[in-house]
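Consider the record:
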Amino acid sequence: MKNHRLQQKNTAHARKVWLLAALLAGALAMTGCYMEPDRIVDDNNGLTVATGGQQFDTVITPTPNVTATPEPTAPTATDNQQVDWSSWDFGNDTATNPPSNVINIGDNTATSNVTVGLSTPTPTPAMTASTSSTLRTGASGAAVKQLQQRLKELGYYTGSVDGSYGAGTASAVKDFQAANNLGADGVAGSKTQEAMYSYYAVAKKNSSTGSSSGSNSSSSGSSSSGSTSTSQYTNGKTDIYLKLGSSGSQVKILQNRLIVLGYLSGSADGDFAETTEAAVVAFQKRNSIYADGIAGPTTLTKLYSSSARKASAVVANIGSLKLGMTGGGVRALQTRLKELGFYTGSVDGDYGAGTQTAVTAFQQANGLTADGVAGKATLNALYGGTGTGGSSTGSGTKPETFGETASIGGYSSLTPSKGSVANVTALQSALSSKGYYVGDLDGDFGTVTSDAVKNYQAALGLRVTGTAGPATQRILYGGAGSSGSYSKLQIGSSGTAVRNLQYTLYELKYYDGNITGTFDEATANAVTLFQQVNGLAIDGVAGVQTQSILYSSAAKPNNL
């Protein structure tokens, strides 16, 4: 019995051992069953078949990279073409490079020639230009040339595109600024240039001639023709230039319009003489146009427009004025005679004995028929700058004559008849160093030296006289004026300082009148133009700053 239980116990133990062995064997069998996970990255576009079986890349779990979508750029020659797979070898087990015009999605390293869908072009302005620098009168170069071209396209500029910022360019800029609601100062700053080169720049409109009517109340008594019909000027052309010496129907239309606006009195005669020129200058000043006395497109367009400003007083008269006449023409005559020192009475518009005496004195001083009647020749002499001053200012001197003995700011004129050997030799040496004089440095101011001076003056934009005046020498030698040693000169000033001012302005081509020593309107106009060209504050007054530049080698001649 005991043996039977022992035998049962051993049998159960054997079963447990067998079951454990079976479980262990099953576990071992299970370890041989392995399957590689799915491949995520395959560097060689699939399996690489080679001797020894299949080779697999290391399993990589990629981390997505978020990159900015590149901006599309301009299409290239390869865009919108069919992909060329002709060079791709599908039978080769080694990868080859795909065609160059294949777009690799997700590749952010070569997107310069990729255009996705249809792109909207960015609108571009009519022109592009650098607006980093301010352009003003006296400037020159490519930027000015481009500015002139743009102004011409917009209809504001009619001159030549020469890259020189002169009065015509300044006037065109001013017109553009006025039409585009900008400060009309004639200076092309950053805002002006930005507007000018933009697609919203306002082009110049063709101004219709104004319809102004009414009588010429400012005209002088019996010399007036009464009311002027608008039909006498509405046919005026605006694409021409009328100036001293012009004549014909267009001049007559111009004069009639000036009469209507109150700048002229008398009857239009179609002769553009000094009286008409004076009226044009007055019109230009009052209407903020460059005052050169030439009725060009800008002046004529404004003159015939309804926005033309009327005169505050008559400037000159066409025809004759004589004893007993009254009106604006007589007032203008008296004002001019007073400026020249011939008339000392009141400017009352009454041609009385005092006015007649002043006219007679002016005629005698200027070689005219002394009859006391202000006829055409007398009036033209009065307004033309050729008339000499009265006894209060002394007789004027022709600039050529004055220049022969001029001595200004430490420089004395050198001529064939004046100048020491040492000074002439220095002149020859300076001209030789600049390539204008070829000859002996002998101190002899002969024909060769005179011609060299003329060539230098022409090249520099100075008045060509052959006389080496103070301004010519100063620029040649690079001399500078003494800052702070000048007194202010303005209308009413007189004396040696004014004479020196007038002659220096003459050498620089700003002043054409006689050297009178009286700071009159013609002198003020010359100073104004000098200030404009040289980038100074424009007021027509020769102050310290204006004279410091005028009497230095930095003074720019008038090349307008």
In short: The chain has a mean pLDDT of 76.
